[in-house]
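User: Structure tokens for this complex, please. No commentary.
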Amino acid sequence: MFSGANLPRVGTYNINVVLSAIQASDGTSRVEIAQQTGLTAQTVSVIVRRLIEQGIVEESGSRPSGAGKPRKALRINPAAAYAVGIHFDPLNVSIVVMDMNGQALARSHQEIPPGVDPEALIAEAARTALSLLSDLGIPRDRVLGVGAACPGPIDQAQGQVSSPRRRDRWSEVPIKRLLERHIGLAVTIDNDANAAAIGERWSGHGRNVSDFAFLYMGTGIGAGLFLSNHIYRGVSLNAGEFGHTVVEPNGPPCYCGNRGCLEAMCSPAAIVKEVHAELALGRASKLALMYEEGPALVDHRAICLAAAGYDPVALQVVNRVAEYLAGCAVTIANALDLELLIIGGRSITHVAEIYRAKMSEFLRSRPLARRSHIVRVAISDMADDGAALGAASLVLHAAYAPDTAHLTRV
Ligand SMILES: [Zn+2]
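Assistant:
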């Protein structure tokens, strides 16, 4: 929980500290906020009155308080503001409209046909988002903004993916500028792992956790880091590229310049390649018949489904990947002293529990990782929508999370 500052000229920060305390709870009271934040009862009372007048917070029900009279419960007014989140993935565009409580009110998923121009996709995403807002009857002036999530690394100055060595659909496309032009709202851009972490902080497993990482396995593998109650972005705003940790020094070359990166060893393409090699040797597997019909049929999804059904070949390969990921989880936990590790992203569908179990096993059994506490591992409940929900949360977070920069900004 954040602490407030009982000093003059810290108004915005304290407002956001109070708002954060209300948002993180399920109905808190003025007295509890003062206790949690260290702000005086009078400061809390003034801020809460202002937030109620602005329609951002509402009193709903009451909370028992021992012998005294019940305290009014404070909650965020979900209709106070809205945000749009758009996840631009190489294969799909996912869009959500989110209320102030972090609940998705509408969603859209579009698969991207091959060869489509990125600007046409952005224009189509903008049209879809505006039509979702219109269907929900949300006026434009209640929308705080649009969050866009893409596979990193991101060039924040240009508002685009900066990945010249990876032939990615979204590389060097000025997503922020194009989206702002087509949608007519302010756009915030971030990588999918950061977005997913903020989404978890706003309305998922990270809601009351001060130090956690989200290991996001989508197109690549990256981590969103939420440390000491703040998203940690690093000097160039691209912290958390754990996908380029070397796990096999003699492994295949990666576009980043290393060999045997986690991403190169654990990506869907790497899994498919290894399973195909095993099947080509004639190993007994439920996938063998499918492979004979056409190797392309044995894709990442089919392999993950087979692994979940205990197919020996699929399970052997997925278990190997799980061990690499678990080793990396221990490194992250050792380096950052985390309370919680959340895993999610499109690549772990059907095999999330295999990955979670292996990570938990490593974190429980490695002496450094368990020295003071066992790091919990949770599977994101946001499924394929994690990055889109996180992208919408970026907007709410930017507007309402306590930012110590407010204290020093001239
Ligand atoms: Zn790499």
